[in-house]
């Protein structure tokens, strides 16, 4: 790796000062400022660094939250059909693949993904091992379940293997023999990819000099580099003659004498030679050296062990030091050396970010993003979550910059006499933590400060010009941190919490312990430019990341296969956290149309996967950071929380977090702790005390969820369960065809009879309820706490529909919402006649609650997508207009003139926006006129005479409709309008505004312009559209009628280019695929199949292709079955509603 280059000399003697300090701390002693007086760096050589390995610096893998930027601005949720990736659009798309609703949408089409890995090749291989285990477990548990259930039901899915088939058949079908399952056997084994457990890091002592431009004069060869001195304390668990660390793209000395291994305690008759880091002039003899060390409290001496050979392995991302002798078991060693590296521009590891101020000057910052496996790009270390260690960080940074890290600074901006251009900032030691949580930010950002009641210092950092937009984050952050202290029953373990808004950050946010990083739009808030939903989004992201400070940071998953637990839990907690910030958001209601709906939609596809799933190839890893992990994870945890009751859930959580604090755990540890909190009277379906593990695993180890069928009996109703798929003809991949528990679940049944909530009961195989009054109205999953759908038979359906029409308020809001969402989806899947659902929908004219209304309009949106721009869609439009025209007319002038009361309730403003968008999507004249007026009067006129106008300053379009107005302006404007938008886009510094403009650029109806935009988006080197936004632009284009046709061909033509440019950036590539491959015809199915056949080598490992193909097939089937009937219904309905 380091090929004979001169290492920058960093004086490690200073490092011992740091060690002294660390150890004194450990013994309760004070820090010793003198220890830092020495200069840690000697500029005696020039640094040459290996260029970064191309492609491995994957920007998109660190999408900690697929950001809200990935969705249409100013768009009510699900106003737009959605693509399967979380990208969305708000103008009417016509592409059927996007019908899978809920999968990312609206301005909130984000999921708070915490980091998408790219380089976890080894994860894939670990997965293979796991998989073997799962297959084995399968046989054991299958039989158990079948017995417990009193016999299996036979195949629920076409092609599924029957439960009584032999072990051999299942094994054959499940794994290697199937052409669909390709396991790369040429790569390294899982064991090779993991680090051995012979050594454990106790602490790292890291001093870094950061060379970034814009502060002080820098020699060109130093620009965007860093140099470092590292000491790690190692505990030898097993004797070994190797030190193996993770490392990538760093420059280590080739001269093996540069590595020093010391040992704790003096060796008897020590005749040690002087360690090479010791300055001869100061230490003339070894004895003096040792005495000095003793005086400073350190008893440490040369171990006599030398590094003989240093080997780098890029595939394994490792460096291996071969030693002259073995490190002895039970002993403590100190391994120290200097190294250097480049500060990359790829948003992984230590990287540079930049922004322009109002004067147009560029400012630079060096920041980090480590999750999941990029700490190794900054420091050679044990880069696996289980190797927790203390980190002591000291930074040498240019005058004018400030440094932030996980722990509180203990010495700040300490001058350096040798290098007056540089200062030191020294941080306290961190608690034991995983390397992926390490953070370092060197910038000229400024901060606002507050404190929690317990005195935890809280700071929000941003570039200076955005500092006044940090108040909301500070208030929200302090509130929610205190809330979680109460909720977890554990004080926040750090002295301070920083939250930093980064102008250019691929991730949405990252939960680094004590130093959370955000995209600006996820942390800043400006009441003139943000919609209420965008404000809620900020609260949500803050709550999510702070929830991780305990769940994830204090207690960390042992290995990445439990990532779903980490993310599912934080997603669940973000709703509680936001309620603590502002109860008007009613997040437990909002959950229904956000996480729950997303999860139910995604998990009804055959191309879904279990929460806990075997990873068979590297590409599978990006799947772990999807709606299943976040939204289904949260939904299943929420169901579990309801089963246990909030108090027991909290109690179990406290047991878990206390028991595993500063350590690691697996999901079974959580189940165990929760089980300990189960009261005696809480029983499972067997009547025995509930075992959380037994309940949870059915929901986490097999994909999908049940639909509970409700059938009228003589005495009441009978319940049974089947797996629900939106398209029963779609077939899962072989590895999931035989679910571990045969697609049966222990379903907690909450229900109400005539509006009265009944005690929870279980549905294992079947169940029956007697009703004293046969006319009673029964609702299953009445509060929407369960992760399942409910199908009522015709008799019950008629009863419910009649009640909705007669007086919908007699049914609780959550019951209505659940019913509407289920019934639209069941109709889509062919389980319920559409006509019944549509007749029921007439009641919507009176529906005032946002949640059921939004879910109903989602159902309609799907139908509208099937109709596309066919001439017959006019009947559909007439019907929808008849439902909402009156209400639109009553609110439109308020909405378009921004005269809605500022203190209006969140759900009221959301409802107004939803109705406005719904009616505007019907192409009615009134809306077109209002859009056009607003565009001219509030955007064109106020901005046109300003030199270098910036939209966020000059535009006066009400923010709640601004995205739509810009879009319509471009759509009906000329090339001048588009060019002006592009200029505005380039100049805009406020991210929410820039997203609106970006959305508008994709609204052009001119194919030449759209192609120009797409070319900018696919060109990885084009800087007008930042890398982080490129796929979003593409999906915006794909979501208009014109764009969706264009984009398919464009994608096919450009696939090779896209693949070659992005093959190491799976997430980005995946989003391009999702935006492009859609449709609703068998012709399109054929086209995609042909394309996949011709491009097998580049497409076969990307599951996203299978998902998109499934969607198009499902759509094509839907069209055959439903299109004509529905047109007929809407035609008749619109005739009826016509004046
Ligand atoms: Zn997260």
UniProtKB/TrEMBL annotation:
GO terms for cellular component: cytoplasm; extracellular space; membrane. InterPro entries: Aminopeptidase_N-like_N (IPR045357), Aminopeptidase_N-like_N_sf (IPR042097), ERAP1-like_C_dom (IPR024571), M1_APN-typ (IPR034016), Peptidase_M1 (IPR001930), Peptidase_M1_aminopeptidases (IPR050344), Peptidase_M1_dom (IPR014782), Peptidase_M4/M1_CTD_sf (IPR027268). Residues 777-1113 form the ERAP1-like C-terminal domain. Zn(2+) binds at residues 544, 548, 567. The record marks 630 as: Transition state stabilizer. Residues 80-94 have a biased composition (Low complexity). Binds 1 zinc ion per subunit. Residues 201-437 form the Aminopeptidase N-like N-terminal domain. GO terms for biological process: peptide catabolic process; proteolysis. Pfam families: ERAP1_C, Peptidase_M1, Peptidase_M1_N. Its cofactor is Zn(2+). The active site is at 545 (proton acceptor). Residues 65-97 are annotated as: Disordered. Keywords: Aminopeptidase, Hydrolase, Membrane, Metal-binding, Metalloprotease, Protease, Transmembrane, Transmembrane helix, Zinc. One of its GO terms (molecular function) is metalloaminopeptidase activity. Residues 472-684 form the Peptidase M1 membrane alanine aminopeptidase domain. The chain crosses the membrane at residues 118-140. Belongs to the peptidase M1 family. This is Aminopeptidase. It comes from Panagrellus redivivus (Microworm).
């Amino acid at each position: 790796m380091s090929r004979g280059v001169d290492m920058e000399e960093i004086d490690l003697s200073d490092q011992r000062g740091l060690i002294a300090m660390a150890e004194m701390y450990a013994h309760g002693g004070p820090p010793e400022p003198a220890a830092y007086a020495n200069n840690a760096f000697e500029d005696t050589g020039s640094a040459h660094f290996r260029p970064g390995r191309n492609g491995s610096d994957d920007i998109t893998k660190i999408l900690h939250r697929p950001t809200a930027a990935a969705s249409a601005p100013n768009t009510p949720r699900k106003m737009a059909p959605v693509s399967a990736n979380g990208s969305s659009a708000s103008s009417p798309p016509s592409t059927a693949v996007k019908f899978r609703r809920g999968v990312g949408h609206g301005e909130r089409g984000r999921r708070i993904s915490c980091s998408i890995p790219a380089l976890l090749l080894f994860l894939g291989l670990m997965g293979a091992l796991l998989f073997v285990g799962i297959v084995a477990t399968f046989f054991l548990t299958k039989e158990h379940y079948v017995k417990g259930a009193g016999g299996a039901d036979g195949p629920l899915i076409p092609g599924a293997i029957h439960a009584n088939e032999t072990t051999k058949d299942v094994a054959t079908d499940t794994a290697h023999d199937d052409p669909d399952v390709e396991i790369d056997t040429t790569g390294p084994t899982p064991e090779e990819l993991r680090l051995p457990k012979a050594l454990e890091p106790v602490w790292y002592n890291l001093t870094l000099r950061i060379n970034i431009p814009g502060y002080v004069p820098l020699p060109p060869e130093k620009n965007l580099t860093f140099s470092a001195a590292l000491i790690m304390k190692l505990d030898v668990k097993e004797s070994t003659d190797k030190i193996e660390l993770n490392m990538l793209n760093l420059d280590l000395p080739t001269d093996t004498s540069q590595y020093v291994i010391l040992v704790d305690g003096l060796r008897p008759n020590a005749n040690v030679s002087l360690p090479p880091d010791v300055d001869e002039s100061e230490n003339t003899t070894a004895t003096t050296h040792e005495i000095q060390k003793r005086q400073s409290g350190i008893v440490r001496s040369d171990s006599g062990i030398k590094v003989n050979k240093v080997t780098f392995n890029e595939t394994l991302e490792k460096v291996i030091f071969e030693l002259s002798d073995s490190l002895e078991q039970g002993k403590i060693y100190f391994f120290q050396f200097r190294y250097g590296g480049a500060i990359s521009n790829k948003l992984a590891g230590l990287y540079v970010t930049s922004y322009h101020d109002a004067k147009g000057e560029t400012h630079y910052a060096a920041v980090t993003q480590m999750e999941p496996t990029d700490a190794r790009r900054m420091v050679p270390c044990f880069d696996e979550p289980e190797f927790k260690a203390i980190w002591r960080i000291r930074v040498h940074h240019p005058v004018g910059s400030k440094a932030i890290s996980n722990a509180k600074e203990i010495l700040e901006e300490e001058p350096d006499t040798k290098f007056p251009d540089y200062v030191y900032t020294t941080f306290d030691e961190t608690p034991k933590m995983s390397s992926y949580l390490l953070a370092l930010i060197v910038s000229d950002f400024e901060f606002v400060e507050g404190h929690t009641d317990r005195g935890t210092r809280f700071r929000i950092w941003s570039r200076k010009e955005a500092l006044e937009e940090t108040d909301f984050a500070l208030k929200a952050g302090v509130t929610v941190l205190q809330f979680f202290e109460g909720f977890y029953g554990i004080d926040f373990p750090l002295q301070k919490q920083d939250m930093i808004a980064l102008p250019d950050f691929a991730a949405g946010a990252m939960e680094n312990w004590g130093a959370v990083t955000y995209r600006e739009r996820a942390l800043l808030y400006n009441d003139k430019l943000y919609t209420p939903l965008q404000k809620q989004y900020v609260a949500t992201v803050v709550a999510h990341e702070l929830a991780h400070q305990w769940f994830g940071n204090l207690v960390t998953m042992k290995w990445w296969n439990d990532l779903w637990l980490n993310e599912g839990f934080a997603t669940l907690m973000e709703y509680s956290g936001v309620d603590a910030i502002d109860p008007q958001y009613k997040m437990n209601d909002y959950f229904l149309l956000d996480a729950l709906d997303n999860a139910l939609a995604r998990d009804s596809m055959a191309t879904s996967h279990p929460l806990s799933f075997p990873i068979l190839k590297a590409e599978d890893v990006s799947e772990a950071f999807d709606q299943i992990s976040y939204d289904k994870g949260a939904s299943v945890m929420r169901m579990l929380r309801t089963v246990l009751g909030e108090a027991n859930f909290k109690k179990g959580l406290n047991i878990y977090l206390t028991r595993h604090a500063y350590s690691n755990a697996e999901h079974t540890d959580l189940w165990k702790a929760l089980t300990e909190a189960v009261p005696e009277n809480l029983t499972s379906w067997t009547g025995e005390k509930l075992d959380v593990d037994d309940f949870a695993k059915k929901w986490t180890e097999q994909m999908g969820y049940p639909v509970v069928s409700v059938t009228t009996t003589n005495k009441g109703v009978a319940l049974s369960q089947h797996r629900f798929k939106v398209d029963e003809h779609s077939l899962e991949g072989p590895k999931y065809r035989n679910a571990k528990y045969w697609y049966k679940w222990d379903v907690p049944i909450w229900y109400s009879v005539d509006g009265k909530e009944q005690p929870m009961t279980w549905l294992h195989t079947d169940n029956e309820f007697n009703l004293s009054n046969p006319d009673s109205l029964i609702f299953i999953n009445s509060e929407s706490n369960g992760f399942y759908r409910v199908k009522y038979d015709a008799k019950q359906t008629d009863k419910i529909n009649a009640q909705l029409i007669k007086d919908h308020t007699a049914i609780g809001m959550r019951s209505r919402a659940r019913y509407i969402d289920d019934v639209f989806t069941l109709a889509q899947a062919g389980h319920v006649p559409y006509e019944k659902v549509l007749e029921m929908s007439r009641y919507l004219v009176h529906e005032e609650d946002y949640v059921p209304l939004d879910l109903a309009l989602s159902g309609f949106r799907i139908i509208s997508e099937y109709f596309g721009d066919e001439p017959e869609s006019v009947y559909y439009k007439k019907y929808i207009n008849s439902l909402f025209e009156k209400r639109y007319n009553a609110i439109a002038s308020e909405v378009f003139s921004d005269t809605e009361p500022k203190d209006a309730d969140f759900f009221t403003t959301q409802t107004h926006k939803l109705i406005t968008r719904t009616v505007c999507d019907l192409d009615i004249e009134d809306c077109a006129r209002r859009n056009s007026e607003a565009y001219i009067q509030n955007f064109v006129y106020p901005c046109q005479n300003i030199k270098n106008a910036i939209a966020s300053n000059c535009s006066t379009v009400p923010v709640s409709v601004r995205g739509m107005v810009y879009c319509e302006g471009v759509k009906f404007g000329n090339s001048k309008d588009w060019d002006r938008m592009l200029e505005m886009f380039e100049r805009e510094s406020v991210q929410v505004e820039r997203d609106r403009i970006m959305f508008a650029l994709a609204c052009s109806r001119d194919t030449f312009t759209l192609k120009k935009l797409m070319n900018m988006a696919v060109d990885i080197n084009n800087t007008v559209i930042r890398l982080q936004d490129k796929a979003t632009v593409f999906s915006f284009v794909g979501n208009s009628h014109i764009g969706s046709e264009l984009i398919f061909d464009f994608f096919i033509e450009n696939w090779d280019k896209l693949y070659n440019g992005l093959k190491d950036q799976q997430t980005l590539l995946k989003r391009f695929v999702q935006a492009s491959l859609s449709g609703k015809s068998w012709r399109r199915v054929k086209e995609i199949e042909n394309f996949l056949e011709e491009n097998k080598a580049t497409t076969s490992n990307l599951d996203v292709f299978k998902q998109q193909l499934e969607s198009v097939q499902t759509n094509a089937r839907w069209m055959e079955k439903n299109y004509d009937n529905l047109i007929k219904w809407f035609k008749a309905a619109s005739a009826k509603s016509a004046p």
